[in-house]
Design brief:
single chain; 244 residues; Ribosomal Protein L25, Chain P; Alpha/beta knot; 2 domains; 6-stranded mixed sheet; 6-stranded parallel sheet; 30% helix; elongated
Length: 244
């Protein structure tokens, strides 16, 4: 069954009056009829099956609760140096599928893309749509938070966690290959991973992060692209929490 995230203002006891965007999707894309059923994720992250009572008006009625648990058991924050073109949108989609809890876009010194907080905010609705659709597709019970763009290393301190790691290619070149693994063996509930843009971080930025208590780690013997590194890290975290 198709899944939909529901806003609080659409809920009236056991009845949902679906919002315009989801209503159009039900009618024009899915071509649902009265009596068809869908899965709705409520703001409290609980999941229910609803039946369509009036497809023309977008009225749904609650049928039964689904006992699901699809979220990672730790909260992962990704601080990501903005890459060029549409790579950011691709990372938004895939990191959502891999269970990220919060995404913090960061404009670093080596970011090729030229933007600022005002320009970035103009694309926020598009980014939010990508997060929502990826969450529905991957059976998430929540939509990851996308924060405003940050432009200073000092702003990173607001998003630190129990474990804080920055992927740094120089660590790999120097032969360090165990810090990431060792960090995941700790007892933690939150973790922040930081990945730079195409050009990576410069030494001054790395030093500022080290001063904040962030550890620079290698991601193995190979150098990964900017859009690959966060997905690799999220995959390793997911494996360490769910598949071992």
């Amino acid at each position: 069954m198709q899944r939909y995230f529901i806003d609080q203002n659409c809920i009236h006891d056991d009845i949902i009056e679906i919002d315009e965007y989801n209503h159009k999707h039900m009618q024009r894309v899915m071509r649902y009829r009265n009596g068809d059923k869908v899965v709705c994720i409520l703001p409290n992250h609980q999941t229910y099956i609803y039946q369509i009572e009036d497809i023309d008006k977008g009225i749904l009625s609650k049928q039964e609760q689904l006992l699901e648990e699809h979220e990672l058991d730790v909260d992962v924050t990704l601080i990501y140096g903005l890459p060029k073109n549409d790579k950011f949108e691709w990372v938004l989609q895939k990191s959502t599928e891999l269970g990220v809890k919060r995404i913090v876009p960061f404009l670093s010194k080596r970011s090729i893309i030229k933007t600022d907080q005002k320009s970035f905010s103009k694309k926020y609705d598009r980014y939010q749509k990508i997060l929502k659709e990826a969450s529905e597709q991957s059976y998430r019970q929540m939509i990851p938070q996308l924060t405003p763009l940050i432009t200073s290393i000092k702003d990173i301190k607001d998003y630190l966690s129990d474990v804080n790691l920055v992927a740094y290619e120089e660590s790999s070149k120097q032969g360090e290959h165990s810090l990431f693994y060792q960090s995941l063996q700790q007892d933690y509930q939150t973790i922040t991973i930081i990945v730079g843009p195409e050009g990576g971080f410069d030494e001054k930025e790395i030093q500022e992060m080290l001063d904040l208590g962030i550890y620079a780690c290698s991601l193995g013997k190979r150098i990964l692209r900017s859009e690959t590194a966060p997905l690799y890290m999220l995959s390793v975290i997911g494996y360490s929490r769910e598949l071992k």
